[in-house]
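pls design
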């Protein structure tokens, strides 16, 4: 068997241990004689899977009792609509535009109310996080929305915006469980799991209970109402059962690794290796201002499109996959999520050094 180092932005690398455990349980999950894929979501074994997954996630993130954890479908993009439908009581929300995902979320929210774009970093291709210490927050805003880690551009909020008492809603798809978070600072934290936690098809929403309402936007589909999902404990209909099972295994892996504090240390060590190399390289250059660099997604360029393409091609031949950057940034992007081992980043940096020597 040969595994590559997979730097994909998502779906992305998962811990080998988790994949192996899932493979071992594929034909016969704990003596049930069937795979988790084949079992009723109302069965006792699945009830244990989802209950344990939620308990482990609560443990890892220290989620307070007055927050609900929902395992939903539709990806992060479905939440771009669900959030305004459920949260826009006054019909107003403030969005900070730090990339394509925040932009799309704002566009979707506009269908349900007034959207103020209160800050943006679009003037410099989203290569930084705007100053959020004194934002023009609307008095009537129901919430302030951020995309906390910008998967495409490689920026991350190092400090949360000053929302002046308004509820903070954060898309954490690409930094989920990469470091400790203070859940109490948010009204809603959500993310698609295919970046840092599990297989595509599951989205996790962590929402403060008092934000779960009955009087949502008129016409909101039953499935998109948080109250429906919270009342049914994510089992209103068939949930993404296999995805939840894998997420549960990743939560256990994270706990075994030492939890989110240990992940943060590990992620900082990996990112430092790559950023330190970029900072002294004659050929490669990081595209993000230093203060706002993401620990998870690292875009870089050579400044020459042909050379970028050559790099991506030769890296692939060397077992370093999915390094092509997003089309709006060009160049390369290395996504170094929780499950990317330190050795993977070492191999990438060694390859970059060699490529630089050969092509400078
Ligand atoms: C990938 C991504 C999305 C979109 O996720 P889908 O599950 O494909 O809808 C949204 N936000 C961020 C930050 C992402 O990285």
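designed seq:
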């Amino acid at each position: 068997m040969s595994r590559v180092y997979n730097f994909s932005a998502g779906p992305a690398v998962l811990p080998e241990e988790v994949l192996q455990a899932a493979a071992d349980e594929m034909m016969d999950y704990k003596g049930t004689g069937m795979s988790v894929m084949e079992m009723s979501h109302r069965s006792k074994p699945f009830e244990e899977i989802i209950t344990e997954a939620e308990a482990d996630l609560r443990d890892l993130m220290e989620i307070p009792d007055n927050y609900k954890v929902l395992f939903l479908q539709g990806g992060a993009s479905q939440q771009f609509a669900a959030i305004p439908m459920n949260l826009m009581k006054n019909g107003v929300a403030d969005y900070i535009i730090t990339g394509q995902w925040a932009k799309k979320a704002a566009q979707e929210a506009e269908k349900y109310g007034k959207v103020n774009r209160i800050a943006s970093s679009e003037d410099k291709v989203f290569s930084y996080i705007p100053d959020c210490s004194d934002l023009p927050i609307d008095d009537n805003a129901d919430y302030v929305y951020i995309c906390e880690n910008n998967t495409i551009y490689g920026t991350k909020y190092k400090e949360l915006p000053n929302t002046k008492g308004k509820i903070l809603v954060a898309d954490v798809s690409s930094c989920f469980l990469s470091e400790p978070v203070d859940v109490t600072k948010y009204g809603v934290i959500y993310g698609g799991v295919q970046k840092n936690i599990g297989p595509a098809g599951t989205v996790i929403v962590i929402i403060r209970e008092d934000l779960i309402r009955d009087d949502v936007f008129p016409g909101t589909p039953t499935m998109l109402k948080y109250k429906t999902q919270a009342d049914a404990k994510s089992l209103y209909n068939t949930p993404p059962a296999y995805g939840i099972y894998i997420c549960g295994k990743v939560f256990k892996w994270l706990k075994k690794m030492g939890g989110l504090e240990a992940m943060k240390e590990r992620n900082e060590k990996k990112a430092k290796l790559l950023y330190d190399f970029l900072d002294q390289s004659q050929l490669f250059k990081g595209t993000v201002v230093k203060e706002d660099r993401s620990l998870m997604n690292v875009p870089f360029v050579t400044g020459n499109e042909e050379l970028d393409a050559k790099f991506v091609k030769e890296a692939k031949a060397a077992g370093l996959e999915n390094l092509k950057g997003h089309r709006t940034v060009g160049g390369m992007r290395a996504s170094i999520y929780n499950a990317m081992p330190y050795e993977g980043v070492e191999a990438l940096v060694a390859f970059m050094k060699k490529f630089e020597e050969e092509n400078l």
